Structure formats: C-alpha cells, structure tokens
C-alpha cells in the first residue's frame, strides 16, 4: 500500500514554459503490513529539486510530530472479569464521603493503583499457567491429573479472554466471535486505528502545511473555540407555536413525576456501548430537524410560503429532510426568498446549527426568467445550477430518459478504454526494441504490409475499396490460419458451424443459460456484437429459485431481449442454441407451458421493436455465451463489461472474430 507523502504533490516535471510544463507524481513509497506495523509513523517527504527532473524522496520512520499526552482514566472492560474488582469498588465507595462526583474521582485514583498492580502480574500468570499446562499434558493421565488439566485450561482461557476483551475495546470491532481467542487480531486492529487517527500535520490558511506540535495545538484550539462559541439565542417561543399539543394531562403528569430506579435501569440498558441513543431509538438530529419543519409549517399556514405539487390534486410540499441534507421548495420570487432566508436565520439562532451556503445549491423551473433568477440569487447568496448534481458519480434524479442520465458513465468508461489502448500503442512506437514490438514486427507487421499492398492493387485494378477494419480482420484471419497449420485434424467428418457475422448495421446478441440442480441457481451469459465482430457489451447474471434448466434458458433469453430493446438499434438478432425456446419466442400465440410467464415478457418487449427477431444457432456457434454462463456458475461472479469480455472468455472471443479471408 502507498504510505503517503508530505510537502510538494508532484515528483517529476518537464518543460519551463506554462504551455509545455508537465507535472506528475511518478515516484512513491509503498510498504506491506509488516513494515507498517514496525514503523507506524513512516512517511515519504518530497524534497526540493533543481538539478534533475525527479525530486529526491526522504523516508522518515519517525513522526515529525510526537505528542506527549497525560494518560486519561478509562474503565477497562476486562476489569469486570477480576474477582477483586467488586471488593475494591465497594471499599472505595463506602470509605469516601461527599458528592457522587467526588466519590468517582477518588475511585478513579484507587482503580489506577489496583490496575497497575494487576497488569504487572497478568503476563506472569499467563506464562505460569501455560507452562503448567504443558507439564500436565506430558504426565500420565489419571483422575487427579485430568482434574488439574481442566482447572488449568479454565484459568488460562480466562486470561486469554481478558486480553481479547482489552484489545476489543480499543479496536471497536463489534463482530467478535465468541471463543475465537483472536486477541492478536484486535491488537493489530487497535494499532492501525491509532496510526490512522494520529494527526501528524495540518493544512493551515493559504494552503500552508505544518508538522510542528505547538502550531498544531494552537490551530486546533483556535478552530474549536470559534466553532463552539455561541451567539445570542433567538426567540424559541415563536418556533414552538408551530408544534401542536399532542400530550394529554395524564401523560404530562407522568413526564413530570420523579425518575424511578426501573426507568433509569431501562434507559442505561437501552444504550449501546459506543452509542448515545435512548430506548426510543431517535438521535438528537431527529429533534433538531423537527425545529426546521415547524418553521416551514408556520410559514405555509400563514400564507408566506407556497410549496410545490407533484400533481394537480397532490399536497403542497415545502421541505424534504434526509440524513444530513434537506430540500426546500418555494416560489421563485423575492418575497419567498426573504421568507426562506428568515426561516434559516431563526433556525440557526435557536438550534445552533449553521447552514453552509457554500455547499447549497438552487434550482429553477424551466419557465423562470433570468431577471427573477438573479434577484433570488442575490438575496439567498447560494450557487445556481441548471442541471441536477451527482452523488457518488450517479445522478440524484433519474427520469424516463435513463439513457441520457447514465450516458456520461458509459462515455467515461469508453474513454478510459481508448486511453489504455492508445497508451499500449504509444509504447510500441516509443520502445521499438522491446520484446513486444519485436514480436509484432515478426508476426504482424509483415502480414499487415502485405495486406495493404494487396488492397492497393485491388483499388488500382478492380476499382474497389476496402475499409481499414476489413483489412485488419483479413490480417487477423490470415494469422489464425497460419497458427492452425500443422495441427492434427480430427477423424470426425462432422463440421462444426462457427459464429457468423451479422449483416451491416445489425447487432447480434447471443445468450445461454446454465443450471445447478442442487441449489436451484442458474446463470445467464449474454454477449452483443456488431457486423464488424466488435463486442459492444457482455454481461453475466445469477438467478435464485429457478425451477429447471428449461427455465434458466428462458430467463437468459428474456434478459437478452431486454438488452436488445435498450440498445435502440435498427436491427437486432437474438440468437440461442435451444430450438424450443426460439420457436416459442417466434410464435405469436399465447404460451401455456411452465415458462409461459417468461415468454409473455419476451413477446411484450418484442412488440415494442418490430425489427427485433430471434434465430436458432447450434451450440458450436454459441460457445462464447456458453462459456460466460458456465464459468459464472462455477466462479459465482457476475460481470457487466462494455466493449470486452472477462479474461476467461477472451480467447474464444478472438476465435469468433475470425472471418474467412476474401
């Protein structure tokens, strides 16, 4: 893994002019888990450089900022497994006087001394028990020896459980399995958390970085002082007028009654070890959000704010609240903008939560004029956007035009693939003496030159032109023909039918299904190619609760039909190797077999595109889809690839791309 860096971001530069200057981070430091465990504070520092294109790297195994903190008191979970803990707490509590806080402070000092003494004897006890158990296991077995072995094992397991609980509390790993005795894992997990949570540097104003301990402390102190400095509290009574009374007199008397021991016990037991939720399960954020809802409700009831409607007869929506975001609706007028601004100000003063206008965004309907847009923007002081933002790379709102919503992702993937192919071609040009380039020269360049020369003669004498793709396919088929020379020819006279290229402007989608009778799982393998044998997409899926292999083929056919319908091409051919399925898909009458529901879905999709047709092909011409389905059933891995197939099917894809030479 990359161990990170400090100082400058880039390690290599080229070009002294702004238009030719290039900077990259070419050099970096990597380490495995063992090295990081030995040197948790190790880091790479990028030093200044002037005589070379590459900057020197300094590996520092010590932290530039080591804070010396006084140890805080923490009640350890493993203390509850000690026999003397109750006696120590009882004696300290009974011998102390004063308030509860004063008693707890004295108990802390008493427990620190007690824990220090126990910790020093802890490792010695475990070593003694381990050695004693080894001795007992070597002795002759009788009733007394077996009893001592059992007793020693119980005590040793108790000590191991204490270590496990100690590191579990620091690791905060809640998925601990009972009797796992894996405290070494929790030790490593806790060390990794400590290393990840250590603040070794801070980014100050003006993009300046510091690693000095004093400067880090001062900056952090100043930041939190400004953050938690309270302003004047607003008028909370106006906020509360929007919340209707829902508590009866009887319930109110119960709320005002003194706390009982049972209520306190239930409340404490309802809290998680690292959480602060009550028995009702609502966090504080829920009640803070209710304040904003109240203000929006008041403005709507007073006629100051008008919400949006999803339909003519639907209710008006003024706000929507999510985990940490909210969406407010209103008319695009100066009056509504001022009302929203006043609501947010009152909410800030009452709840202490401030709105981050730098991250806020405003959207307008299509019929809003520019003058009103500018006026509302100047009042609210937020950014404007004409298109909906994206969250985690995906659009927030997806309408009926799904192809346009996700086209950006497809374009980025295809651009990435083109960049990788161009990079590989650039390596051949830059490194002509490499082994790959030499193999290409010996195997491909000569054949390519010969094909280009032949195409030139055809253009001159026959007056016909061939595209570069056809020349490339001819070279590929010629090389495959040469590779097949000398191979043994089978005795069988049966000729396998190979996959055939579809006509121009046509896409062929091959499908196949695989079925597992033991768990009733099936898989679908689907691949789509054009007339030039270029793979448009390939996908594999896993289905549960499938009745038979017949149903598995029908499910794969339905998925292939759905993909063909979404492609929106002029001509689509759906090809499979099960003749009965293809016949049912081509038939027009209602199918009443066990797979009738799947066939009905296929007919319904086929009616939306009259140029979508089905064709039967033998298994020998459907090998690629068969490999995708069977390998997915074996590997239990689903895929969806644009312009390619998984690695285990690439050889078959290359074989099917071969066309008989002209």
From TrEMBL:
MF terms (GO), sorted A to Z: nucleic acid binding; RNA-DNA hybrid ribonuclease activity
Short name of any one Pfam family annotated for the protein: RVT_3
Ranges for domain RNase H type-1: 510-631
Xref: CDD domains: RNase_H_like (cd06222)
Matching InterPro entries: RNase_H-like_dom_plant (IPR044730), RNase_H-like_EbsB-rel (IPR052929), RNaseH-like_sf (IPR012337), RNaseH_domain (IPR002156), RNaseH_sf (IPR036397)
Protein name: RNase H type-1 domain-containing protein
Organism phylogeny: Eukaryota, Viridiplantae, Streptophyta, Embryophyta, Tracheophyta
């Amino acid at each position: 893994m990359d161990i990170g860096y400090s100082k400058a971001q880039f390690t290599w530069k080229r070009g002294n002019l702004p238009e030719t200057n290039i900077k990259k981070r070419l050099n970096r430091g990597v380490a495995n888990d063992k090295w990081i465990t030995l040197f948790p504070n190790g880091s790479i520092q990028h030093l200044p450089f002037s005589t070379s294109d590459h900057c020197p790297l300094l590996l520092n195994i010590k932290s530039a900022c080591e804070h010396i903190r006084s140890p805080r008191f923490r009640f350890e979970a493993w203390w509850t497994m000690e026999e003397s803990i109750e006696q120590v707490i009882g004696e300290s509590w009974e011998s102390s006087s004063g308030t509860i806080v004063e008693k707890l402070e004295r108990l802390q000092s008493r427990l620190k001394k007690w824990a220090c003494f126990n910790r020093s004897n802890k490792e010695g006890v475990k070593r003694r028990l381990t050695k004693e158990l080894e001795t007992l296991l070597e002795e002759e077995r009788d009733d007394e020896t077996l009893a001592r072995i059992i007793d020693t094992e119980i005590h040793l397991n108790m000590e191991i459980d204490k270590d496990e609980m100690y590191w579990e509390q620091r690791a905060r790993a809640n998925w601990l399995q009972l009797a796992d005795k894996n405290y070494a894992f929790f030790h490593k997990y806790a060390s990794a958390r400590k290393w990840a949570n250590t603040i070794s540097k801070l980014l100050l104003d003006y993009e300046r970085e510091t690693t000095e301990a004093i400067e880090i402390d001062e900056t952090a102190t100043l930041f939190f002082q400004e953050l938690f400095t309270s302003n004047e509290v607003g008028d909370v009574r106006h906020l509360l007028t929007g919340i209707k009374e829902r508590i009866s007199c009887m319930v109110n008397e119960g709320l005002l009654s003194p706390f009982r021991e049972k209520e306190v016990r239930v409340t404490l037991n309802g809290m998680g070890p690292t959480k602060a939720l009550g028995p009702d399960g609502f966090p504080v954020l829920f009640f803070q959000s209710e304040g904003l809802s109240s203000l929006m409700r008041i403005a709507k009831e007073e006629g100051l704010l008008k919400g949006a409607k999803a339909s003519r007869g639907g209710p008006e929506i003024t706000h929507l609240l999510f985990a940490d975001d909210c969406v407010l609706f209103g008319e695009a007028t100066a009056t509504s903008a001022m009302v929203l601004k006043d609501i947010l100000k009152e909410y800030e003063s009452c709840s202490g939560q401030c709105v981050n206008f730098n991250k806020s965004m405003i959207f307008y309907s299509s019929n809003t004029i520019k003058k009103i847009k500018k006026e509302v923007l100047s009042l609210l002081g937020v950014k404007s956007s004409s298109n909906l933002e994206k969250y985690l790379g995906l659009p927030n709102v997806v309408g009926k035009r799904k192809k346009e919503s996700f086209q950006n992702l497809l374009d980025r993937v295809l651009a990435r693939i083109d960049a990788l192919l161009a990079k590989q071609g650039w390596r051949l040009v830059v490194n002509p003496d490499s082994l790959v380039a030499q193999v290409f020269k010996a195997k491909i360049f000569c054949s390519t030159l010969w094909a280009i020369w032949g195409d030139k003669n055809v253009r001159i004498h026959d007056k016909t032109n061939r595209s570069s793709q056809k020349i490339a396919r001819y070279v590929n088929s010629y090389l495959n023909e040469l590779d097949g020379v000398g191979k043994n020819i089978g005795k069988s006279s049966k000729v396998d039918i190979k996959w055939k290229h579809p006509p121009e402007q046509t896409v062929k989608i091959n499908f196949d299904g695989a079925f597992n009778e033991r768990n009733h799982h099936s898989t679908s393998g689907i691949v789509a190619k054009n007339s030039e044998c270029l793979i448009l997409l390939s996908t594999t899926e896993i289905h549960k609760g499938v009745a038979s292999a017949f149903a598995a083929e029908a499910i794969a056919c339905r998925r292939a039909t759905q993909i063909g319908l979404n492609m929106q091409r002029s001509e689509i051919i759906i090809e499979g190797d099960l003749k009965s399925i293809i016949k049912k898909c081509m038939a027009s009458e209602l199918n009443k077999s066990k797979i009738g529901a799947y066939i009905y879905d296929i007919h319904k999709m086929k009616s939306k595109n009259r140029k979508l047709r089905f064709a039967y092909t033998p298994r020998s011409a459907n090998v690629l889809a068969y490999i995708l389905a069977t390998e997915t059933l074996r590997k239990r891995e689903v895929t969806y690839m644009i312009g390619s197939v998984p690695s285990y099917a690439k050889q078959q894809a290359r074989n099917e791309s071969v066309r008989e030479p002209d």
